[in-house]
Amino acid sequence: MLCIVVVVTLRSTSFRDIVLKSVRATGSPTVGRGQPASHYRAGNFAGEAPWALSALPECLLQDKEFRAPSKARVLEHLPVAAQPVAAGTVLRFRDCRLEIRAHDAFVTRGKDWFWIPPQTEFFISRGNLLMLRVDRGAELRIYEPSNLST
To answer: What residues make up the domain containing 112?
Structure first.
């Protein structure tokens, strides 16, 4: 077996002082060590994720995002026609289920679920879903229902 190793020596911070050398290394291949089979099985996705809706393009596509230090500044971008979504409402976008609660939400898709933490409010405007979240500043994300194939 032939193995080529490149050794780089840096003598100063100037690139012109880089020295490249080739070195030949020889050796014989060995049999790999046996390792026990892995018992890891990929699980479902679950957890806290304020960005969860942006990570589900099969259900919703994020169209716009506005960030500001205060809720009042972000609300300037809320469409006049936006209607608040009441706590207890369940919205479905393709195979995603969004359960709106008083100050947070859960989104599920198949066996995967994500918790969108407080302080979150949802609105509907012209068929789009708007999510307003306040946490160390404020953000407003506007989503449109996806037409991507699954």
So the answer is: 47-145
Note whether residue 63 is domain-resident: yes
**Rounded CA gap, 25 and 95, in Å?**
57
Entry pTM: 0.69
What total number of domains does the chain contain?
Answer: 1
Per residue in 100-124, pLDDT tens?
999 999 999 988 899 999 999 999 9
In angstroms, the CA 4 to CA 22 distance is 7
Strands (E), 43-127: 46-48, 60-68, 83-84, 90-93, 96-100, 105-109, 112-116, 120-125
Any domain includes 18: no
Spatial separation of the C-alpha atoms in residues 46 and 22, rounded to whole Å: 49
Query: What residues does 114 pair with on adjacent strands?
Result: 47, 107
In a domain, 122, yes or no: yes
